Amino acid sequence: MSTEPDLRLTTAAGLETYLASTRYASTSIETVSGGHTGFLYRVVLKEPLETGEKTVIVKHTLEYAAQSIIDIANGGTPGPGRITLNVERMDFEHEALELVNSNPELSTIVRVPRVHTYDPHTHTLIMSDVAPCRLLSSVLQEADDELVSRIGRALGEFMGKFHKWTSLPEQAAARKRFLENTTSREDVLRIRWQLALAAAKKYHVERAWMEDMYLAGMQDGQSGTVICMADFWFDNILVSTQHDLAIWIVDWETTRSARPELDVAHFATAAYSLVHVHRPIPLMREFTKAYKAHMDLDETSLGTHAGRDMLSFGVVMPWIRHRDESIKQPIAQLGVELLEAAHTGDEQALRKNPVLADIQQMSLLRQALRTRASRSNIRPEESPPPKKSYAKSIKSVASVKTLAASLASFYTSKVPGSVGTSSPKRRRSPRSELGKPPFASKNPELKWVDGVEACDGPMVSGVSTVRTLDERVSLVVHHFGEPGERGVVFYGATSVSGQVRLVASKPDPIESIEVWVTLKSSCTFSSSEPNALELRATLYRNSGPLEPGTYVFPFIFDPFPESVVVRQEEKKNVTGRPLARVLLPRRVGFIRVLSLWF
């Protein structure tokens, strides 16, 4: 191949000449969409490769972006000049693809394109063509929850393993190398922060401390504990469902050493912005579950990265970019709330933010399981008990005899043909009294019962349910249930929050919009029973007509009470004490399904 840079590689005709004397000589070349910072082509080969491939993808870069990301942020309007980017970023994409392909244990579903050849003089990469496939953003808008869950698990497993693998001591040289990607570490990171600051100003959510956070973020980018893809969002992920599920992650030129939260936050930003205008999907829940089997995340760092990306990219995602400003404003608001929570160290605000709800909920679950395991002295299955601990349990002759007798009894009762074998007697299972509260005739007191454990950790609502009342009005409720579940689920001491979304195509004489929450006190729901608690919020009140447009009315209620009075449901009440006061627990126990009207 030519050793001189060729500006004609920015055109299909120039590329055809460049490839003419190589094994990649073409019969036709077409431009591939999506190459924002490089020039991307699909080449139909004159002769198939040894692998049987008849097409390849060619990517070429120069010292500027093919399409300015600032142009994208401006809705496609050209900005003042092109962005200068170090042309050596293509070297890092080549090395990143080779690195991932060197470890086939990362995933059997998620892959990256295979490199055929790389010309470092012209910064031209020739790689495998993974077509036919579709952008993840398109697939998610049509897929059912089962497919979405499979995609989330596969991507979470891949990225968790990749981050874990590249954090190991034996990958120190690779981390050092990718820290040299100054285009990603400095230029692209600076653009992200500048776009975030500009969006904060545009949507009137700027804060005085943001400039300091920007400078701290740039300093933080000078190091890293893992190797990050650093551009991990939906349109860099291609999906094929023609046969078995296959996923490819492309566009690795910004790969650099960084905190793992960089990749996860960017992915979460894309996920939330899509759900913001689409139906709730289990993508992030399944992604996080699979990811956290391999890697943990720092809450504050995650909040910082996600807050910045919600402001810089959340408002310009392809499915958001051309929508009304009333759709973008809540995204920007959530972004600044994340940054503020990270800035002040407000862990509760970080956990309540819906952008990170699924991630934080899985973190709390893992923490609870670890705490319970440590309290119960449970060790991992693969770890044998310490010899000293085991020796203590059989340190006396008497204990050894007791153990032997127990084993003999088990053997003779279970092994056919052994002496003493007999069929065990059938006994009626005893009725458990575990968790049964003390009942009273009136004014019951709240008392702890056996089997109930206090848990003061905050709950995070990780599911959003959308109920469409008609073509104009829909209700979004954030709660603790499962996707697709009927009704909405809450726990004691948690709050109901959500949005009322209204589309007015013409002046609409709406006088008020209200949200009602009612709570029943019995163990079973009955519409005829009086409400134990009733909450109401007025979101809009006006005597004049509502002007045409799209409106979003957010709401959040005060937390529910810690406990309620319930009536025992036994058919025969021989005690004359039908009432008891029980907790509405934060994590386990009784779940109340609430109905909402407005």
Give an overview in words:
The chain has 598 residues and is of the alpha+beta class. It has 3 domains: 1-129, Phosphorylase Kinase, domain 1; 132-368, Alpha-Beta Complex (Aminoglycoside 3'-phosphotransferase, Chain: A, domain 2); 460-567 and 583-597, no CATH class. Helix content is 34%, strand content 19%. A 5-stranded antiparallel β-sheet has the order 1-2-3-6-5, sandwiched between helices. The protein has a 4-stranded mixed β-sheet with strand order 4-10-9-7. Strands 12-13-15-18 form a 4-stranded antiparallel β-sheet, covered by helices on one side. The model is unreliable at 1-6, 76-81, 375-382, 387-395 and 586-598 (pLDDT under 50).
Q: Could you tell me the mean pLDDT?
A: 79
Level of helix content?
A: 25-40%
- The assigned CATH architecture of the largest domain is Alpha-Beta Complex
Rg (C-alpha, Å): 30 Å
Topology diagram in text:
Layout lengths: L11 H8 L6 E6 L7 E7 L9 E6 L8 H5 L15 H13 L8 E2 L3 E5 L4 E5 L5 E2 H5 L4 H22 L5 H7 L3 H21 L7 H11 L5 E3 L8 E4 L5 E4 L6 E3 L2 H17 L5 H9 L7 H14 L12 H20 L2 H6 L4 H19 L11 H7 L3 H18 L48 E6 L4 E7 L8 E3 L6 E8 L7 E8 L13 E9 L7 E8 L6 E5 L11 E5 L8 E6 L1
Parallel strand pairs: 4-10
Antiparallel strand pairs: 1-2, 2-3, 3-6, 5-6, 7-9, 8-11, 9-10, 12-13, 13-15, 14-21, 15-18, 16-17, 16-21, 19-20
Helix pairs in contact: 5-10, 7-8, 7-11, 9-11, 11-12
